[in-house]
Amino acid sequence: MARVAGYQGQVNIGGAILGTREWSLDEVVAAVDSSGYDSGQPKTFVACQTEWAGSFSGPKNQRPEAIGLPVTFIFYEIAADATRRWEGGGFITSCRPVSTVDGIVMYSYDFQGSGAIAAHPTA
Amino acid sequence: MGIETIGTGIKTTILTAIATGLRVYASNEIPDTLELPCALILPGESEYATAYDVSSDLTFRIVLCISKQDTPSAFSKILDYIDTTGPLSIWIALAADKTMNATCHTSKLIKNLGVGYTAWGNIVYLSTEFELAIWSKP
Fold first, then answer.
1. Longest alpha-carbon distance in chain A
2. Is B113:B64 a contact under the CB 8 Å cutoff?
3. A65-74, B34-43, B66-75, B95-104: which range is least confident on average?
4. pLDDT in the model for residue B19
């Protein structure tokens, strides 16, 4: 498997969020302890509900994204390659603008996925 | 935008505010001999792929040459350009249009490096240098 250069990425919410520098996504499954007296000393676990959430950030380039509204997220590892994307519905949970005197205005967002991830990278 | 376009935008921005007495050389107009006083717009340190969409963070050096080194009294003429007020202020000129004539997203005059000397074509000039940060757009 070839490595993928990060600068080719994109965050898309009905259109590319220009200026974005990074995104991260956590897809997790709850590991619930199912140990009983019959399990003996080693704990046992059952995979239960899944969820996904993450964040993205970069310089301000356009009107800020709204929080709380249902949207479709597409997180591209390579913007021009649909086989290298994460896609699913959810909403932005927080928006943090930061302005510093010696830099440019930056925005960072946290999001929560709702339901399943519709598309995982296939390459 | 390319370095050449932004350099020309910086020149336009300076000349819009400082209309008389200063010759400004854009990055693609650098001469072998200088007409004084003058500002040389030179490319500085660059950082590429700073966002997913095509953009880069650039630095331009604006070298201001006032006179040849054999007239050190001319150092006093540099003060008006370094100052943050007055008709010759580089700070005011560049703050008037942070997009450098619509060639970049935004910019910031970071610092002045103080007075000193610049060797150009085997001639040494009294000079000062400004550092201008440019956040570019495609």
1. 63
2. no
3. B66-75
4. 81
Which of A58, A63, A54 minimizes the C-alpha distance to A7? A58
Q: Residue B42, Cβ neighbours under 10 Å: how many? A: 16
CATH 2.50.20 is right for the domain spanning A6-119 = no
Q: Map out the domains of chain B as residue ranges.
A: 3-136
pLDDT at A1 (0 to 100)? 60
The rounded distance, in Å, linking the Cα atoms of B126 and A43 is: 77
For B50, the closest of A16, A21, A79 (CB atoms) is A21
Could you tell me the residue ranges of all domains in chain A? 6-119
Which residues, listed in sequence order, are joined to residue A98 by a DSSP beta bridge? A106
Distance CA B30, CA B3 (A): 13
B3-136: CATH class: alpha beta
Give the closest-approach CA distance of B50 to chain A in angstroms. 7
Q: According to the model, what pLDDT value does residue B138 have?
A: 66
Please enumerate in sequence order all residues whose Cβ is within 8 A of that of B30, keeping only pairs 6 or more positions apart, or say none. Answer: B40, B42
B-chain residues near A59 (CB < 8 A): 51, 105, 135
- Which residues of A are less than 8 Å from B53 in CB distance? 10, 16, 18-20, 61
Amino acid in the structure at residue A7:
Y
- The ipTM value here is 0.83
**Average pLDDT taken over every residue of chain B:** 93
Total Cβ atoms within 10 A of residue A73:
26
